[in-house]
Amino acid sequence: MRALCLFFICALSALTATAQAAEARAAVASNFLATFRMLTSDFANKTPHQIVIISGSSGKLYAQIQHGAPFDLFFSADQHRPELLEKEGQAIKGSRFPYALGRLTLWSPKPNFIPVDGKTALTREDITHLAIANPKTAPYGRAAEQTLRSLGLWDQLTPRLVYGENIAQTFQFVSSHNAELGFVARSQVAGSHNQESGSHWDVPPTLHDPIVQEAVLLHQGGTNTAARAFLEYITSPSAQAIIHQQGYGIPDPEKTP
Questions:
Q1: Tell me, what's the pLDDT at 227?
Q2: Do 81 and 142 contact (CB within 8 A), yes or no?
């Protein structure tokens, strides 16, 4: 009888744990994908919840959300689109917050190809292709365009530009040697997940607008336990340590523009 009672207690506990576990769908900007996978793995070790990841450029994910894509969370590579979703009534008002500061870097898989002065590398005569993300849909692409304009090289280099749909595809263009160099996310070069070598030049932040990456809770996720728990987890010391280790800055909400 005692064994039977213990069996039912264990079974009830298992059912309770299962009932408490939830799943959320997160739309994640491609530059943050590798870091986000690390975060969801750590989150899964700490909670019973699971996060399903859908990745792409911030612009395309925003468009999908507008057309009713069933996402609970949106981790954008900018501030603009989460703010628009909040204003359009597709996100929970007051849930938007900065989770990372993006860094732009000029990268080549060739060692010593990029000297200390990045502008010198950009004016090399042997460069036939320079990869950047699409400035119309990808915040890192917009920052790359602003950088080239600040350096006075936009008109000169426009004929050599190849555009990635997002920053992940831009990185692929360079790593596959289809472009001699390109503007990518610093996290793609400095993160522990990156196995590439080569040379790079970290773009001074004064050359482009800040890349403040924001997250927002979408209306579908308003009652989703996993979605809310994950947003709370992102602000924890363990999550912020992972974000910082992967080449991002940690925003100060009081100083974030």
A1: 97
A2: no
pLDDT at 6: 36
Q: Do both 6 and 19 map to the same domain?
A: yes
Report the chain's C-alpha Rg in angstroms: 21
Which of 76, 59, 97, 105 shows the shortest CA–CA distance to 247?
105
The pTM (predicted TM-score) of the whole model is: 0.80
Q: Rounded to whole angstroms, how far apart are CA atoms 240 and 79?
A: 19
> Is residue 207 situated within a structural domain?
no
Give CA–CA dist 181/162, Å, rounded.
Answer: 10
Instruction: Report the number of distinct structural domains present in the chain.
Output: 2
Q: How far apart are alpha carbons 255 and 168 in whole angstroms?
A: 29
Q: Is the pLDDT of residue 144 over 90?
A: yes
**Which tokens in the block code for residue 101?**
């500061």
Sheet of strand 161-164: strand arrangement: 161-164, 130-133, 181-185, 104-108, 199-202
Report the range of poorest mean pLDDT among 132-141, 142-151, 195-204, 218-227.
Answer: 195-204
Residue numbers of the domain that contains 151 = 104-202
Residue 238 lies inside a defined structural domain of this protein:
yes
Structural contact between residues 138 and 59, judged by C-beta atoms closer than 8 angstroms:
yes
